[in-house]
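sry for the spam today, last one i promise. struct tokens for design, 414 residues
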């Protein structure tokens, strides 16, 4: 019989982690502070599952672009300087990683993790019908307004069998929802096999599956406060429900992981990148896109999920402030209306914001810690849904004593 494990966090990363640990033979409990799974960053994220097209935020030229974005009225970036040294430390580490060599190394790791995640999601969909979480595989289309940026991206994807370079005319022909943008586009890159789905519905379905597993010992609805540590390992997790004991602990609690890790003497290089989304109903006659679309320069994505259009964008570096900023919602609405004015009923769109826990280089942290029985599955940023299944299967293997594949050894605590 496996060990008793407490997974801290009931978002998509925590729930998938719980599942793969159950399948590895462990007895598992999940601690989640909200009344329902996926109440944080997993609730209304972009919905794109980008296994083959990954672009870490840290890259050469990004600092200059960031200055330009900060000056734009509807720019994708906002920065509010804080007295918190963690913000400045994260920014300094981010700037150090904004070079092509580091970006290429991170991209290679994320592509490998994406391949693993795609296969792992396929395994899980044998147990959770895709229709339960509006899963589709329409491919992903990245739009470019600048010919230079299009050419650079085309060189990077040259020879990739899953990608195609489309002219503007081809893009509009294959995705008529782009007609309004035709005059502004230089072209697009289409990637086969990319998917869209509703992360919240996926989490709810997975939570039901967890409860049906004989090794699942239930969900604890409470908040984590700290640790009891003896002899270099954890003996209990301090919670609002009282101390919770287990043989192993997994930290997968989004940005909350930063403070919890600090209580165990660990400094995690995480910062909450606040993102926004709109979920607008699609009416009969609306020209919503069928393909998953990303506007590269506007840093905005459009994903048709069931009978709704999800529009997601923005990186706000404003600390742990989860409240919705009406100005940012208005900005995102203007962007969507200008790009696809007839795609959905924007007047009845539901706004959401979430804190995405990101590392400076954009790669998650998966694996052991200096404490013998504390493990990490954190820092996925905007790609938690995409990488959740692969991260969970990787961590379960590592906890069973299996080494990480060579291509993924760089994902440990660094």
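last one done:
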């Amino acid at each position: 019989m496996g060990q008793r494990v407490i997974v801290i966090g009931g978002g998509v990363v925590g729930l998938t982690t719980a599942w793969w640990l159950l399948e590895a033979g462990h007895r598992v409990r999940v601690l989640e502070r909200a009344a329902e799974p996926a109440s944080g960053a997993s609730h209304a994220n972009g919905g794109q599952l980008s296994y083959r097209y990954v672009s870490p935020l840290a890259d050469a030229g990004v600092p200059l672009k960031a200055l330009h974005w900060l000056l734009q009225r509807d720019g994708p970036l906002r920065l509010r300087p804080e007295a918190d040294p963690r913000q400045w430390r994260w920014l300094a580490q981010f700037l150090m990683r904004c070079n092509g060599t580091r970006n290429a190394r991170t991209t290679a790791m994320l592509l490998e993790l994406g391949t693993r995640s795609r296969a792992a999601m396929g395994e899980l969909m044998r147990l959770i019908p895709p229709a339960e979480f509006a899963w589709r595989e329409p491919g992903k289309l990245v739009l470019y307004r600048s010919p230079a940026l299009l050419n650079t991206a085309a060189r990077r994807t040259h020879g990739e069998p899953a990608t195609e370079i489309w002219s503007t005319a081809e893009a509009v022909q294959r995705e008529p929802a782009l007609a309004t943008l035709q005059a502004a586009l230089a072209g697009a890159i289409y990637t086969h096999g990319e998917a869209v789905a509703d992360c919240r519905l996926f989490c709810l379905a997975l939570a039901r599956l967890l409860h049906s597993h004989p090794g699942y010992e239930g969900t604890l609805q409470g908040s984590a406060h700290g640790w009891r540590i003896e002899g270099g390992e954890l003996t209990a997790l301090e919670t609002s429900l009282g101390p919770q004991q287990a043989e192993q602990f997994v930290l997968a609690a989004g940005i909350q992981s930063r403070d919890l890790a600090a209580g165990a003497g660990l400094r995690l290089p995480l910062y909450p990148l606040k993102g926004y989304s709109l979920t607008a109903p699609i009416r009969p006659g609306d020209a919503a896109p069928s393909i998953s679309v990303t506007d590269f320069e506007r840093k905005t994505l459009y994903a048709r999920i069931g009978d709704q259009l999800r529009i997601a964008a923005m990186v706000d570096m404003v600390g742990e402030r989860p409240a919705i900023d009406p100005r940012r919602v208005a900005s995102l609405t203007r962007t969507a209306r200008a790009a696809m004015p007839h795609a959905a009923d924007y007047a009845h769109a539901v706004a959401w914001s979430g804190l995405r826990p990101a590392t400076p280089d954009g790669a998650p942290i998966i694996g052991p810690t200096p404490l013998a029985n504390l493990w990490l599955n954190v820092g996925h940023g905007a790609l938690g849904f995409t990488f959740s299944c692969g991260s969970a299967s990787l961590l379960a293997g590592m906890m069973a004593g299996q080494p990480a594949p060579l291509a993924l050894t760089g994902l440990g605590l660094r």
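The mean pLDDT is 96. ok im logging off now
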